[in-house]
Amino acid sequence: xxxxxxxxxxxxxxxxxxxxxxxxxxxxxxxxxxxxxxxxxxxxxxxxxxxxxxxxxxxxxxxxxx
Length: 66
What we know:
This protein has helices at about 5-15, 25-35, 40. It has about 70 residues and is mainly α. The longest helix is centred in the N-terminal third of the chain and has 11 residues, at about 5-15.
């Protein structure tokens, strides 16, 4: 899975170096870095928008009538 933003890029490089306490493991960080082409890293946005992250938003529905 490629890196989607500059913020995520900084996190992955810090995790790969072992500087992150509560974050992705070194192995996962190295996989992200390897999956991202070097040319694509230059054009990354500072933060990924909600649509580009691949996460689905959950909609909570109330049951009952309260």
